[in-house]
Amino acid sequence: MDNKYAFKVTAAGRVNIIGEHIDYCGGKVFPAALSLKNTVYVRPNGTDKINIEWTTLPDKATLDINDLEKGKALKYGNYQAMSALMWGKAGHKVIGCDMLHDCTVPFGSGLSSSAAIEVSTIAALATVAGESFEPRDVALIAQKAERALGVNCGIMDQYASACGKAGYAMLLDCSDVTCEYVPIRTGDYSIVIINCNKPHNLVESKYNERRAETEKALEILKTKLDIECLAQVGERDFELYEHLLEGKIHDRAKHVVSECARVARAEAAMNAGDMRLLGRLLNESHASLRNLFEVTGKELDALAAAAQSHPDCAGSRMTGAGFGGCTISLVKRGAVEDFKKYVCEKYTRATGYNAVCYDAEIADGITVEKL
Ligand code: GLA
Protein backbone atom coordinates (compact mmCIF):
# COMPACT_ATOMS: atom_id res chain seq x y z
CA MET A 1 0.00 0.00 0.00
CA ASP A 2 1.31 3.48 -0.79
CA ASN A 3 0.90 6.10 1.91
CA LYS A 4 -0.94 8.67 -0.16
CA TYR A 5 -4.29 7.98 1.43
CA ALA A 6 -5.74 10.75 3.59
CA PHE A 7 -7.54 8.67 6.24
CA LYS A 8 -7.63 5.22 7.72
CA VAL A 9 -11.15 4.29 8.86
CA THR A 10 -12.07 1.00 10.48
CA ALA A 11 -15.21 -0.79 11.61
CA ALA A 12 -15.39 -4.06 13.51
CA GLY A 13 -16.71 -7.54 12.96
CA ARG A 14 -18.76 -8.79 15.89
CA VAL A 15 -19.48 -11.81 17.98
CA ASN A 16 -22.84 -12.19 19.63
CA ILE A 17 -22.50 -13.61 23.13
CA ILE A 18 -26.19 -14.40 23.41
CA GLY A 19 -29.57 -13.21 22.12
CA GLU A 20 -29.81 -14.82 18.71
CA HIS A 21 -32.55 -13.98 16.22
CA ILE A 22 -33.87 -11.53 18.77
CA ASP A 23 -32.93 -8.15 17.30
CA TYR A 24 -35.67 -8.12 14.67
CA CYS A 25 -38.14 -9.24 17.37
CA GLY A 26 -37.46 -6.06 19.34
CA GLY A 27 -35.56 -7.64 22.23
CA LYS A 28 -32.19 -7.19 23.88
CA VAL A 29 -29.06 -8.77 22.41
CA PHE A 30 -25.55 -9.03 23.84
CA PRO A 31 -22.87 -8.63 21.14
CA ALA A 32 -19.31 -7.31 21.28
CA ALA A 33 -17.10 -5.81 18.57
CA LEU A 34 -14.02 -7.76 17.49
CA SER A 35 -10.47 -6.89 16.56
CA LEU A 36 -11.21 -8.67 13.25
CA LYS A 37 -12.26 -5.65 11.18
CA ASN A 38 -12.55 -3.89 7.85
CA THR A 39 -10.12 -1.06 7.23
CA VAL A 40 -10.72 1.54 4.54
CA TYR A 41 -7.85 3.73 3.38
CA VAL A 42 -9.46 6.65 1.61
CA ARG A 43 -8.61 9.90 -0.23
CA PRO A 44 -10.72 12.33 -2.26
CA ASN A 45 -10.07 12.12 -6.02
CA GLY A 46 -11.94 15.16 -7.35
CA THR A 47 -14.10 13.06 -9.72
CA ASP A 48 -17.61 11.66 -9.50
CA LYS A 49 -16.29 8.12 -9.16
CA ILE A 50 -15.57 5.91 -6.16
CA ASN A 51 -12.67 3.64 -7.07
CA ILE A 52 -12.34 0.56 -4.91
CA GLU A 53 -9.45 -1.81 -4.50
CA TRP A 54 -8.85 -4.64 -2.03
CA THR A 55 -5.74 -5.91 -0.35
CA THR A 56 -7.01 -9.47 -0.53
CA LEU A 57 -8.76 -9.58 -3.93
CA PRO A 58 -7.51 -9.02 -7.46
CA ASP A 59 -10.80 -7.26 -8.38
CA LYS A 60 -11.19 -3.51 -8.80
CA ALA A 61 -14.51 -1.69 -8.95
CA THR A 62 -15.61 1.78 -9.93
CA LEU A 63 -18.88 3.27 -8.72
CA ASP A 64 -20.52 6.27 -10.31
CA ILE A 65 -21.77 8.51 -7.51
CA ASN A 66 -24.66 9.59 -9.73
CA ASP A 67 -25.73 6.01 -10.44
CA LEU A 68 -24.87 3.98 -7.33
CA GLU A 69 -27.83 1.66 -7.87
CA LYS A 70 -25.87 0.07 -10.70
CA GLY A 71 -23.27 -1.16 -8.20
CA LYS A 72 -25.84 -3.47 -6.62
CA ALA A 73 -25.05 -6.12 -9.21
CA LEU A 74 -21.33 -6.23 -8.44
CA LYS A 75 -19.90 -9.34 -6.85
CA TYR A 76 -17.45 -7.21 -4.86
CA GLY A 77 -18.32 -3.57 -4.36
CA ASN A 78 -22.06 -4.12 -3.92
CA TYR A 79 -21.95 -3.45 -0.17
CA GLN A 80 -19.94 -0.29 -0.74
CA ALA A 81 -22.37 0.82 -3.47
CA MET A 82 -25.47 0.31 -1.34
CA SER A 83 -23.80 1.96 1.65
CA ALA A 84 -22.96 5.04 -0.42
CA LEU A 85 -26.44 5.05 -1.95
CA MET A 86 -28.21 4.91 1.41
CA TRP A 87 -25.88 7.48 2.99
CA GLY A 88 -26.60 9.86 0.11
CA LYS A 89 -30.34 9.17 0.31
CA ALA A 90 -30.24 10.12 4.00
CA GLY A 91 -29.13 13.59 2.91
CA HIS A 92 -25.37 13.31 3.26
CA LYS A 93 -22.72 14.35 0.78
CA VAL A 94 -21.05 11.55 -1.17
CA ILE A 95 -17.89 12.65 -2.98
CA GLY A 96 -15.59 10.89 -5.42
CA CYS A 97 -12.75 9.08 -3.71
CA ASP A 98 -10.29 6.20 -3.90
CA MET A 99 -10.69 3.45 -1.35
CA LEU A 100 -8.51 0.54 -0.44
CA HIS A 101 -10.34 -2.08 1.62
CA ASP A 102 -8.49 -4.46 3.90
CA CYS A 103 -10.86 -6.95 5.54
CA THR A 104 -9.69 -9.29 8.28
CA VAL A 105 -13.21 -10.50 9.09
CA PRO A 106 -13.44 -13.78 7.18
CA PHE A 107 -16.25 -13.66 4.60
CA GLY A 108 -19.17 -15.95 5.37
CA SER A 109 -17.95 -16.59 8.93
CA GLY A 110 -21.04 -15.25 10.67
CA LEU A 111 -18.85 -12.55 12.26
CA SER A 112 -20.46 -9.77 10.21
CA SER A 113 -17.94 -8.97 7.54
CA SER A 114 -20.76 -7.30 5.62
CA ALA A 115 -21.64 -4.97 8.51
CA ALA A 116 -17.95 -4.11 8.95
CA ILE A 117 -17.73 -3.23 5.25
CA GLU A 118 -20.92 -1.16 5.26
CA VAL A 119 -20.14 0.74 8.44
CA SER A 120 -16.51 1.48 7.53
CA THR A 121 -17.53 2.55 4.01
CA ILE A 122 -20.06 5.05 5.34
CA ALA A 123 -17.67 6.35 8.00
CA ALA A 124 -14.99 6.72 5.31
CA LEU A 125 -17.36 8.59 2.97
CA ALA A 126 -18.38 10.96 5.76
CA THR A 127 -14.76 11.52 6.82
CA VAL A 128 -13.46 12.19 3.33
CA ALA A 129 -16.32 14.67 2.77
CA GLY A 130 -15.37 16.48 5.99
CA GLU A 131 -18.55 15.49 7.80
CA SER A 132 -18.67 14.45 11.45
CA PHE A 133 -21.07 11.63 12.33
CA GLU A 134 -22.65 9.68 15.15
CA PRO A 135 -21.74 5.97 15.01
CA ARG A 136 -25.35 5.05 15.83
CA ASP A 137 -26.60 6.96 12.75
CA VAL A 138 -24.02 5.23 10.61
CA ALA A 139 -25.26 1.87 11.92
CA LEU A 140 -28.86 2.66 11.05
CA ILE A 141 -27.96 3.63 7.48
CA ALA A 142 -25.66 0.62 7.11
CA GLN A 143 -28.59 -1.62 8.03
CA LYS A 144 -30.50 -0.13 5.10
CA ALA A 145 -27.61 -1.03 2.81
CA GLU A 146 -27.74 -4.66 3.99
CA ARG A 147 -31.48 -4.75 3.47
CA ALA A 148 -31.12 -3.32 -0.03
CA LEU A 149 -29.06 -6.43 -0.77
CA GLY A 150 -31.82 -8.79 0.25
CA VAL A 151 -31.28 -9.64 3.92
CA ASN A 152 -34.12 -8.33 6.04
CA CYS A 153 -31.73 -8.01 8.98
CA GLY A 154 -32.04 -6.47 12.42
CA ILE A 155 -29.73 -3.77 13.78
CA MET A 156 -27.38 -5.87 15.92
CA ASP A 157 -24.47 -6.34 13.50
CA GLN A 158 -24.21 -2.79 12.22
CA TYR A 159 -24.66 -1.36 15.71
CA ALA A 160 -21.93 -3.54 17.19
CA SER A 161 -19.65 -2.81 14.24
CA ALA A 162 -20.09 0.95 14.66
CA CYS A 163 -20.51 1.44 18.41
CA GLY A 164 -18.40 -1.31 19.98
CA LYS A 165 -15.97 -0.49 22.79
CA ALA A 166 -12.80 -2.40 23.65
CA GLY A 167 -13.35 -4.56 26.72
CA TYR A 168 -17.13 -4.18 26.73
CA ALA A 169 -20.12 -6.12 25.51
CA MET A 170 -23.20 -4.18 24.48
CA LEU A 171 -26.58 -4.89 25.95
CA LEU A 172 -28.43 -3.49 22.99
CA ASP A 173 -32.15 -2.87 23.27
CA CYS A 174 -33.35 -3.28 19.71
CA SER A 175 -36.77 -1.77 20.41
CA ASP A 176 -35.27 1.72 20.58
CA VAL A 177 -31.66 1.04 19.58
CA THR A 178 -30.08 2.12 22.85
CA CYS A 179 -27.27 0.30 24.56
CA GLU A 180 -25.68 -0.21 27.89
CA TYR A 181 -21.99 -1.13 27.89
CA VAL A 182 -21.25 -4.10 30.12
CA PRO A 183 -17.59 -4.80 31.02
CA ILE A 184 -16.49 -8.22 29.78
CA ARG A 185 -15.62 -9.93 33.04
CA THR A 186 -14.89 -13.50 32.20
CA GLY A 187 -12.46 -14.07 35.08
CA ASP A 188 -10.26 -17.05 34.39
CA TYR A 189 -12.20 -17.94 31.23
CA SER A 190 -11.49 -16.85 27.65
CA ILE A 191 -13.90 -16.36 24.78
CA VAL A 192 -12.92 -18.69 21.94
CA ILE A 193 -14.35 -18.33 18.43
CA ILE A 194 -14.19 -21.24 15.99
CA ASN A 195 -15.49 -21.35 12.42
CA CYS A 196 -17.11 -24.60 11.26
CA ASN A 197 -15.90 -23.63 7.80
CA LYS A 198 -18.82 -25.11 5.96
CA PRO A 199 -19.65 -23.02 2.93
CA HIS A 200 -23.06 -21.63 3.72
CA ASN A 201 -25.65 -20.93 1.12
CA LEU A 202 -29.33 -19.98 1.09
CA VAL A 203 -28.65 -18.02 4.27
CA GLU A 204 -30.60 -15.01 3.03
CA SER A 205 -33.75 -16.88 2.11
CA LYS A 206 -33.77 -19.01 5.27
CA TYR A 207 -33.08 -15.93 7.39
CA ASN A 208 -35.95 -14.01 5.84
CA GLU A 209 -38.20 -17.05 6.27
CA ARG A 210 -37.45 -17.25 10.00
CA ARG A 211 -38.13 -13.57 10.37
CA ALA A 212 -41.48 -13.93 8.62
CA GLU A 213 -42.37 -16.84 10.94
CA THR A 214 -41.74 -14.72 14.03
CA GLU A 215 -43.92 -11.98 12.51
CA LYS A 216 -46.70 -14.50 12.00
CA ALA A 217 -46.47 -15.54 15.67
CA LEU A 218 -46.60 -11.89 16.71
CA GLU A 219 -49.69 -11.29 14.63
CA ILE A 220 -51.49 -14.17 16.37
CA LEU A 221 -50.37 -13.28 19.91
CA LYS A 222 -51.39 -9.66 19.34
CA THR A 223 -55.01 -10.79 19.26
CA LYS A 224 -54.67 -11.63 22.98
CA LEU A 225 -51.83 -9.51 24.30
CA ASP A 226 -51.13 -5.80 24.23
CA ILE A 227 -47.71 -6.08 22.57
CA GLU A 228 -45.78 -4.46 19.78
CA CYS A 229 -43.06 -7.01 19.33
CA LEU A 230 -42.53 -10.67 20.13
CA ALA A 231 -39.77 -9.90 22.64
CA GLN A 232 -42.36 -8.26 24.89
CA VAL A 233 -44.05 -11.61 25.52
CA GLY A 234 -43.02 -12.87 28.94
CA GLU A 235 -42.63 -16.58 29.69
CA ARG A 236 -45.86 -16.66 31.73
CA ASP A 237 -47.95 -15.01 29.02
CA PHE A 238 -46.44 -17.35 26.49
CA GLU A 239 -47.55 -20.36 28.51
CA LEU A 240 -51.07 -18.95 28.57
CA TYR A 241 -51.34 -18.46 24.83
CA GLU A 242 -48.88 -20.82 23.19
CA HIS A 243 -51.75 -23.17 22.30
CA LEU A 244 -52.81 -20.58 19.70
CA LEU A 245 -49.61 -21.13 17.75
CA GLU A 246 -49.14 -24.17 15.58
CA GLY A 247 -46.13 -26.28 14.65
CA LYS A 248 -43.07 -24.37 13.54
CA ILE A 249 -44.61 -20.98 14.31
CA HIS A 250 -44.96 -22.10 17.92
CA ASP A 251 -41.39 -23.34 18.05
CA ARG A 252 -39.94 -20.15 16.57
CA ALA A 253 -41.84 -18.01 19.09
CA LYS A 254 -40.83 -20.26 21.97
CA HIS A 255 -37.19 -19.78 21.05
CA VAL A 256 -37.60 -16.01 21.01
CA VAL A 257 -39.36 -15.87 24.38
CA SER A 258 -36.87 -18.18 26.10
CA GLU A 259 -33.83 -16.54 24.48
CA CYS A 260 -34.93 -13.11 25.74
CA ALA A 261 -35.06 -14.53 29.26
CA ARG A 262 -31.58 -16.00 28.78
CA VAL A 263 -30.16 -12.63 27.71
CA ALA A 264 -31.32 -11.07 30.98
CA ARG A 265 -29.79 -13.93 32.96
CA ALA A 266 -26.59 -13.73 30.93
CA GLU A 267 -26.14 -10.07 31.75
CA ALA A 268 -26.54 -10.86 35.44
CA ALA A 269 -24.06 -13.75 35.12
CA MET A 270 -21.52 -11.49 33.40
CA ASN A 271 -21.89 -8.81 36.06
CA ALA A 272 -21.47 -11.41 38.80
CA GLY A 273 -18.53 -13.04 36.99
CA ASP A 274 -20.43 -16.36 37.08
CA MET A 275 -18.95 -18.10 34.06
CA ARG A 276 -20.47 -21.48 34.90
CA LEU A 277 -23.93 -19.94 34.64
CA LEU A 278 -23.08 -17.96 31.51
CA GLY A 279 -21.76 -21.17 29.97
CA ARG A 280 -24.95 -23.06 30.78
CA LEU A 281 -26.96 -20.28 29.15
CA LEU A 282 -24.83 -20.58 26.00
CA ASN A 283 -25.57 -24.31 25.88
CA GLU A 284 -29.29 -23.72 26.35
CA SER A 285 -29.27 -21.08 23.64
CA HIS A 286 -27.64 -23.48 21.20
CA ALA A 287 -30.16 -26.22 21.99
CA SER A 288 -33.01 -23.78 21.40
CA LEU A 289 -31.52 -22.58 18.09
CA ARG A 290 -31.12 -26.21 17.05
CA ASN A 291 -34.43 -27.68 18.20
CA LEU A 292 -36.85 -24.77 18.02
CA PHE A 293 -35.45 -22.17 15.65
CA GLU A 294 -33.66 -24.71 13.40
CA VAL A 295 -30.80 -22.55 12.21
CA THR A 296 -27.78 -24.62 13.27
CA GLY A 297 -27.22 -27.52 10.89
CA LYS A 298 -25.12 -30.59 11.41
CA GLU A 299 -21.74 -28.87 11.26
CA LEU A 300 -22.51 -26.20 13.87
CA ASP A 301 -24.12 -28.86 16.02
CA ALA A 302 -21.03 -31.05 15.78
CA LEU A 303 -18.76 -28.11 16.59
CA ALA A 304 -20.82 -26.99 19.60
CA ALA A 305 -21.11 -30.58 20.85
CA ALA A 306 -17.35 -31.10 20.59
CA ALA A 307 -16.77 -27.88 22.52
CA GLN A 308 -19.34 -28.71 25.17
CA SER A 309 -17.74 -32.09 25.77
CA HIS A 310 -14.36 -30.59 26.75
CA PRO A 311 -13.93 -30.60 30.55
CA ASP A 312 -12.63 -27.01 30.66
CA CYS A 313 -15.42 -25.53 28.56
CA ALA A 314 -18.20 -23.82 30.52
CA GLY A 315 -20.46 -23.64 27.46
CA SER A 316 -20.65 -23.16 23.72
CA ARG A 317 -23.15 -22.11 21.08
CA MET A 318 -23.46 -20.94 17.51
CA THR A 319 -23.22 -17.17 17.02
CA GLY A 320 -24.77 -15.03 14.28
CA ALA A 321 -27.46 -15.98 11.79
CA GLY A 322 -26.49 -19.66 11.76
CA PHE A 323 -26.62 -22.15 8.84
CA GLY A 324 -22.81 -22.18 9.06
CA GLY A 325 -20.29 -19.78 10.55
CA CYS A 326 -18.89 -19.76 14.06
CA THR A 327 -19.36 -20.93 17.61
CA ILE A 328 -18.47 -18.96 20.70
CA SER A 329 -17.17 -20.93 23.68
CA LEU A 330 -16.13 -20.05 27.22
CA VAL A 331 -12.94 -21.89 28.06
CA LYS A 332 -10.60 -21.93 31.09
CA ARG A 333 -7.63 -19.73 30.18
CA GLY A 334 -4.91 -22.30 30.76
CA ALA A 335 -6.76 -24.88 28.68
CA VAL A 336 -7.42 -22.88 25.51
CA GLU A 337 -4.75 -24.51 23.33
CA ASP A 338 -5.75 -28.00 24.40
CA PHE A 339 -9.41 -27.10 23.83
CA LYS A 340 -8.79 -25.88 20.28
CA LYS A 341 -6.87 -29.00 19.35
CA TYR A 342 -9.45 -31.30 20.91
CA VAL A 343 -12.43 -29.56 19.31
CA CYS A 344 -10.89 -29.31 15.85
CA GLU A 345 -9.92 -32.99 15.80
CA LYS A 346 -13.29 -34.14 17.06
CA TYR A 347 -15.11 -31.90 14.60
CA THR A 348 -13.14 -33.09 11.61
CA ARG A 349 -13.76 -36.71 12.56
CA ALA A 350 -17.49 -36.00 12.78
CA THR A 351 -17.94 -33.92 9.61
CA GLY A 352 -14.90 -34.08 7.36
CA TYR A 353 -14.51 -30.27 7.51
CA ASN A 354 -11.52 -28.49 9.05
CA ALA A 355 -12.53 -25.92 11.64
CA VAL A 356 -10.61 -22.64 11.93
CA CYS A 357 -9.89 -20.89 15.25
CA TYR A 358 -9.56 -17.12 15.45
CA ASP A 359 -7.50 -15.04 17.81
CA ALA A 360 -9.62 -11.98 18.38
CA GLU A 361 -9.95 -9.41 21.13
CA ILE A 362 -13.03 -7.41 22.07
CA ALA A 363 -12.29 -4.12 20.35
CA ASP A 364 -13.62 -0.70 19.36
CA GLY A 365 -16.23 -0.07 16.68
CA ILE A 366 -15.50 2.76 14.24
CA THR A 367 -12.05 4.34 14.42
CA VAL A 368 -10.80 7.23 12.25
CA GLU A 369 -7.17 8.18 11.83
CA LYS A 370 -5.77 11.02 9.72
CA LEU A 371 -2.76 9.79 7.78
C1 GLA B 1 -27.65 -11.80 11.32
C2 GLA B 1 -28.41 -10.49 11.21
C3 GLA B 1 -28.66 -9.87 12.59
C4 GLA B 1 -29.27 -10.88 13.55
C5 GLA B 1 -28.51 -12.20 13.52
C6 GLA B 1 -29.18 -13.29 14.31
O1 GLA B 1 -26.36 -11.61 11.78
O2 GLA B 1 -27.71 -9.55 10.40
O3 GLA B 1 -29.48 -8.73 12.45
O4 GLA B 1 -30.62 -11.07 13.29
O5 GLA B 1 -28.34 -12.69 12.20
O6 GLA B 1 -29.20 -12.96 15.66
Describe this entry's structure for a reader:
The model has no long low-confidence stretch (mean pLDDT 96). The protein has 371 residues and is of the alpha+beta class. Helix 1 packs across helix 3. It has a six-stranded mixed sheet. Strands 10-11-9-12 form a four-stranded antiparallel sheet. A three-stranded antiparallel sheet has the order 2-7-8, sandwiched between helices. A hairpin with a 4-residue loop joins strand 7 and strand 8. The protein binds alpha-D-galactopyranose. The site of alpha-D-galactopyranose has 11 residues, from helix 4.
Instruction: Report mean pLDDT, rounded to a whole number.
Output: 96
Strand fraction: 15-25%
Query: Counting H and I runs of at least 4 residues, what is the number of helices?
Result: 10
Q: Radius of gyration from the CA trace?
A: 21 Å
Global outline:
globular
Largest sheet: 6 strands, mixed
Structural class: alpha+beta
Could you tell me the number of beta strands? 13
SSE pattern? EEEEEHEHHHEEEHHHHHEEHEE
Unreliable spans:
none
**Spatial strand arrangement across the major sheet:** 5-4-6-3-1-13
Bound molecules: alpha-D-galactopyranose
User: What percent of residues adopt helix (DSSP H or I)?
Assistant: 25-40%
C-alpha termini separation: 13 Å
